UniProtKB/TrEMBL annotation:
Enzyme class: transferase
Family to which the UniProt record says this protein belongs: Belongs to the class-V pyridoxal-phosphate-dependent aminotransferase family. SerC subfamily.
Official protein name in the record: Phosphoserine aminotransferase
Keywords for this protein: Amino-acid biosynthesis, Aminotransferase, Cytoplasm, Membrane, Pyridoxal phosphate, Serine biosynthesis, Transferase, Transmembrane, Transmembrane helix
Cofactor note: Binds 1 pyridoxal phosphate per subunit.
Compartments in which it is found: Cytoplasm
Subunit structure, as described in the record: Homodimer.
Binding site for pyridoxal 5'-phosphate: A177, S178, W203, T253, D273, Q296, N338, T339
GO terms for biological process, alphabetical: L-serine biosynthetic process
Obligatory cofactor(s): pyridoxal 5'-phosphate
Pathway linked to the protein: Amino-acid biosynthesis; L-serine biosynthesis; L-serine from 3-phospho-D-glycerate: step 2/3
Organism of this sequence: Bacillus cereus (strain Q1)
Length: 461
């Protein structure tokens, strides 16, 4: 802008000077040359004014502002190719950056994670005017009949897809699975003041630590000595009936392991954290006293937590249990005691509808096994990439892998990002890479990842 102002001053000065020359030379024939030069300079001046107008008055417009940057020869564009053949462009403008998202990449994040594209498109369509109401779900009263139908439909769909028996409640909660680490002992540790925990990863360990603040905790089995790369054997270890419940984590998001068979517990309620594999494969809900899951991995957006709890486990919390941490509060009020995460519930309902359209849990499990096999088969044959997980207990959802060095890991991640394969960095406690391939990840995304890994291996033999 400083340069433009200087040019403006120069042009005005030049015109004034030429007017002065015209006055001196009077009617000499050279005046025709003066007219020509004046017109040229006037044209340049008008172009400059137009350029200044663009810079000054359309600074907030991406398209016009980027044109201005092109004029200054300072345009930097990087493209990431995604699965709908568009691109993400970073347009750097002096000291600020305008990011225009033009396409979707393959997002392998462990959570918040990929959502089905048809769901996002429907959210986009209904965002500002839901069902002809003239307002967004985010603006709608949770006491309205519109939202009541949304939460009812979400509950019904979940019951249908998971075949949940009538003696179970479906609760829509907040606070993530991490809050359940506290709610569970506060509500269930009420008879023996003792619970059993099976340690299979970082999240089950955190759940145990919260339970220890409420009562006594017995570590039934642990794979910590094996760095949580396997699931411990539980044969004959669940016979203690003087436990209020036994807690397991069916799928370990960070470590990439899962239970192949759910442990059989006769007279003690089995509690399961299914945050990263709920609805990914079939489970017999009747084997559990309580199932809980944060939505942001395989159900919907962050903000919602689902609890599926047997009715006879509700109402046993001590009187000192805070109201908002008592399952009975939500059970008696249809999960509407206070304002729920309404938008998250709405999107989760759409995800459940999408899952039903795919053929339900049985069909999606078949797809998940196929997708995970694509990656595992390559890892088993690879001379560069390795997976630390016990093959018997490999997760269908979260697949960790690594190369021989941190330098190669970094190079792999950077080049993957350039190809539109993003959020592959492993958890800080494990390192390497991790591909989370939840229900919404298309098979083509996994195939693209495998193709890239093959190319990377050829380049780094």
């Amino acid at each position: 802008m400083v340069l433009c102002r200087r040019l403006w001053t120069l042009f005005i000065g030049s015109l004034v000077f030429l007017q002065f020359i015209k006055f001196l030379i009077g009617s000499l024939r050279i005046i025709s040359y003066y007219s020509f030069i004046t017109r040229v300079l006037s044209t340049i001046m008008y172009l400059t004014l137009f350029y200044m107008f663009i810079k000054k008055f359309t600074h907030a417009s991406d398209s016009i502002a980027s044109c201005a940057v092109i004029l200054e020869k300072k345009l930097t564009v990087s493209c990431i190719v995604g699965y709908n053949s568009e691109s993400l462009k970073n347009i750097k403008m002096r000291n600020r950056e305008v990011i225009r998202v033009m396409e979707r990449v393959y997002n392998f994040s462990a959570g918040p994670s990929i959502l089905p594209l048809p769901v996002l498109e429907k959210v986009q369509k209904e965002l500002v005017n839901y069902n002809g109401t003239g307002m967004s779900i985010m603006e709608m009263s949770h006491r309205s009949s519109y939202f009541q139908s949304i939460i009812d439909e979400a509950g019904s769909l979940l019951r249908e897809l998971m075949n949940i028996p009538d003696e179970y409640e479906v609760l829509f909660l907040q606070g993530g699975a991490s809050l359940q680490f506290s709610m569970i002992p506060l509500n269930l540790m009420n008879t023996y003041k003792k619970a059993g925990y099976v340690l299979t990863g970082s999240w089950s360990k955190k759940a145990l630590q919260e339970a220890e603040k409420v009562g006594e905790v017995q570590v039934i089995a642990s794979s910590e000595n094996e760095k949580f790369t396997t699931i411990p054997k539980l044969d004959g270890l669940l016979g203690d009936e003087k436990l209020d419940y036994v807690h397991i984590t069916t799928n370990n998001t960070i470590e990439g392991t899962k239970y192949v068979d759910i442990p059989h517990v006769d007279k003690v309620p089995l509690v399961a954290d299914m945050s990263s594999n709920i609805l990914s494969e079939r489970y017999d809900v009747s084997k559990f006293g309580l199932i809980y899951a944060g939505a942001q991995k395989n159900l919907g957006p962050a903000g919602l937590t689902i609890a599926i709890i047997k009715r006879d486990l509700i109402g046993g919390a001590d009187r000192s249990c805070p109201t908002m941490l008592n399952y009975e509060t939500y059970s008696k009020n249809n999960s509407l005691y206070n304002t729920p995460p309404s938008f998250s519930i709405y999107v989760t309902k759409l995800v459940l509808e999408w899952l039903k359209e795919q053929g339900g849990v049985s069909a999606i499990e078949e797809q998940n096994r196929m997708k995970s096999s694509l990656l595992y088969n390559f890892l088993d044959e690879s001379k560069l990439f390795t997976s630390p997980v016990d093959r018997t207990y490999r997760s269908l959802m979260n697949i960790p892998f690594t190369t021989p060095s941190e330098e190669l890991n970094s190079e792999f991640l950077q080049k993957a990002k350039e190809r539109g394969l993003v959020t592959l960095k492993g958890h800080r406690s494990v390192g390497g890479m991790r591909a989370s391939i939840y229900n919404a990840m298309p098979a083509h995304g996994v195939q693209q990842l495998v193709n890239y890994m093959k190319e990377f291996e050829l380049e780094n033999r």
